[in-house]
UniProtKB/TrEMBL annotation:
Pfam families: C1-set
One Gene Ontology cellular component: MHC class II protein complex
Keyword Transmembrane helix applies: yes
Gene designation per UniProt: H2dma
Organism phylogeny: Eukaryota, Metazoa, Chordata, Craniata, Vertebrata
Membrane topology reported for the UniProt record: Single-pass type I membrane protein
SMART domains linked: IGc1
Organism name: Anhinga anhinga
Compartmental location: Membrane
Gene Ontology biological-process annotations: adaptive immune response; antigen processing and presentation of peptide or polysaccharide antigen via MHC class II
Protein name: DMA protein
Length: 233
């Protein structure tokens, strides 16, 4: 069998929304680097990645590509406005923990937002309907094979019973808001679960036995209650 093919993709986008420019280097849909246009430098997605060789594409070359992208976008916008429908995607958000849940122990809550197009959404957090901003980290946009983007937001948490966390995804220009909730739920120990199931099965068996006896008695009384005694009028 042939080894699976791998794809190295460099995706540049420009748009009227913020961020107006974006450039990402991805390997098999996993982001490796993104280009910081204000700082004119590549930024690794993970801190332990080696720096991207600047000689491959100099910052000046990338800025020229970005300028060309903006010029082409403006020209195409003038030609297509009112003639072609605008492509849009409704974001889809999923919230999960980075590590297994232990109530009262520090953890990280992850909000993964997919089906983003255009790549211009704001991600915010709430805890029990109160806005939370401390420690929040939002990643750059990562392109996917189907020409949409995904973005992650990380929130350090210490889950407690009764907490309600909310990930809010907003696209202001389209006035679209997607809200996803996460509530900590402790897993039931297997011994407790087995005991509960055994108890439920035993109670159901007793109930069925009582129901069977009741039906027999009702049937017996009905049969003997309607029978006539010999010599009766």
């Amino acid at each position: 069998a042939e080894p699976p093919a791998h794809v190295m993709a460099e995706v540049l986008f420009c748009q009227p929304d913020m961020p107006s420019l974006g450039l990402t280097l991805a390997f098999d849909n996993d982001q490796l680097f993104w280009f910081n246009f204000p700082g004119s430098c590549w930024t690794p997605h993970l801190p332990n990645l080696p720096p991207w060789p600047s000689a491959v594409e100099t910052p000046m070359q990338l800025l020229q590509d970005a300028t060309l992208c903006q010029d082409v976008r403006r020209s195409l916008t003038e030609l297509a406005t009112g003639k072609l429908p605008e492509s849009k995607g409704i974001p889809v958000a999923n919230v999960f923990l980075a590590q297994p849940l232990v109530l009262g122990e520090p953890n990280t809550l992850v909000c993964m937002v997919g089906n983003i197009f255009p790549p211009a959404v704001e991600i915010s957090w709430q805890l029990n309907e109160v806005s939370v901003t401390q420690g929040v980290t939002n990643t750059h946009y990562t392109p996917k094979d189907d020409l949409v983007f995904v973005r992650f937001s990380y929130l350090p948490v210490t889950p407690a019973a009764g907490d309600v966390y909310t990930c809010i995804v907003t696209h202001k220009r389209d006035n679209v808001t997607v809200i996803t909730y996460w509530v900590p739920q402790s897993s039931v120990p297997s011994e407790v679960l087995e005991t509960a199931l055994c108890g439920a099965a035993m109670a159901l068996g007793i109930l069925l036995a009582l129901l069977g006896i009741t039906m027999i008695l009702v049937s017996w009384r009905s049969t003997h209650g309607t029978a006539r005694m010999p010599g009766s009028p």
